[in-house]
Design brief:
single chain, alpha+beta, Pnp Oxidase, Chain A, 10 strands, 40% strand
């Protein structure tokens, strides 16, 4: 299997709209003792507070939320299309009910204070900087409310990219 090479966050190749919105990613938090991962297709990358950052959105009822809240580090893992089934599985099942690693065959890597997956093509190791709960009072476009029929508003995390690995 091809090995990861550490790169600077500014050297990341690939269109972020494709990587996040079309290809999806796994958001993973926890440690070798216990962790969870979930599929996400919302988020962003950019510059904030003079740092290269990611923006990740997690609903409070998601199992991964508990792990992100407890820890300082989480990872974003991006995959080739060959792993679409694993991403679909991780998005459709809760880690409370099933061992996602066993079910998907993904290989966890415990490094840099976080957990990511050997099969990924790109990994971002992220350190939480701030969070903000989504508040519908701030929605200028009322159609955004349709994303929250159950009133389960996301928490947005802004996190610094502290390491980036690419194959």
């Amino acid at each position: 299997m091809q090995k990861f090479q550490e790169i600077q966050p500014g050297e990341i190749t690939g269109n972020p709209f494709t990587l996040i919105g079309k290809d999806w990613m796994l958001v993973t938090a926890g440690d070798a003792g216990k962790f969870n991962t979930m599929t996400a297709s919302w988020g962003g990358v950019g510059v904030l507070w003079n740092k290269k950052v990611v923006f990740t959105f997690i609903r409070p009822q998601r199992y991964t939320y508990e792990f992100i809240e407890k820890g300082e580090v989480f990872t974003l893992s991006f995959f080739d299309e060959a792993h679409r089934d694993a991403l679909q599985f991780c998005g459709a099942h809760s880690g409370r009910d099933v061992d996602k690693v066993q079910a998907t065959g993904l290989t966890p890597v415990f490094s840099d204070g976080g957990v990511y997956f050997e099969e990924a093509k790109l990994v971002l190791v992220c350190r939480k900087l701030a969070y903000q709960d989504m508040d519908p009072a701030g929605f200028i476009d009322p159609s955004l409310e349709k994303n929250y029929a159950a009133g389960d508003y996301h928490r947005m995390y802004a996190a610094e990219i502290v390491k980036a690995y690419q194959k």
